[in-house]
Amino acid sequence: MTKQAGRSARDSVWREGRVRRGGRSGQPSGLDRQRITEASVRLLDAEGLAKFSMRRLAAELNVTAMSLYWYVDTKDDLLELALDATYAELRLPDPDHTDEDWREQLRALAAAYRGLLVRHPWLSPLAGRFLNIGPNSLAFSRVVQQVVRRAGLPAHGVTGAIAAVFQFVYGFGTIQGHFQARIADTGLSPEEYFEQAMSLVDEVPGTADVMKESKDLMAARGGDTVDEMLDRDFAFALDLLIAGIEAMVARG
Asked: Which parts of 1-101 fold into alpha helices (H)?
């Protein structure tokens, strides 16, 4: 059956034996795939996904754009490499340490993934674009599976539990990352931005009753800073999900 445009899975830079582009002589000196990947991550952090280009990266490395094609075939290859490189930042617990509580290991993994998404706001859209089969991503996925399996769920429930926890973390971290980027553009502190946003919403007709209830709830959760409020929300939501896993294990 022939491939149809838009219907086939994208190739991966990690596929063994993938045919590389040819036709050029004289490999450029001073470059390697690791250096290019590290520069890609720095550039994505500084300027975002929308501004990322091979030409911009070449300028950052002080080389020609064509020299980058010795190491990758496309810009997507670079993005896939950069995506996996960020997963190397995660400190993974050892799931074979059975004396450690799986709940605490799962909390540590969730907190680490949230931090990754916040530090690299460009990561979240790429996580759904690529297969995530690089070595660092696979190491993270494997540890998550092993930790959740130790909870005692039946095999058919493990992937659902992982989805519940890490899709929540993905959403929370993505929104927080975008929120922080928006604040950075204003030059305000998170607290100043939050107060201005709340004041603006108060001025919108018909929102007074809703905002009064929301402010009561926000006051009840505690926290003196925006970061503390977010941390409390994240920790409580994660506790709810872990309690749900425990309840399903108890149900048998």
From this structure: 33-47, 54-61, 75-87
d(CA 123, CA 106): 21
- Packed helices 226-251 and 102-119: angle between N→C axes, nearest 10 degrees: 140
* Contact partners, residue 20, CB within 8 Å, separation at least 6: 73
The tokens for 24 are: 């050029």
Nearest-10 crossing angle of helices 102-119, 155-186: 40
According to DSSP, residue 134 is labeled: S
Phi and psi torsions of 15, nearest 5°: -65, 130
Given a contact cutoff of 8 angstroms between Cβ atoms, the answer to whether 223 and 236 are in contact is no
Q: How confident is the model at residue 224 (pLDDT cuts 50, 70, 90)?
A: confident
3-state helix, strand, coil in the chain (%, to 5): 65, 0, 35
Q: What global pTM score does this model have?
A: 0.86
> Tokens 């048998």 identify what position?
252
CA distance 111 to 114: 5
Q: Which of 22-31, 123-132, 224-233, 239-248 comes out lowest in average pLDDT?
A: 22-31
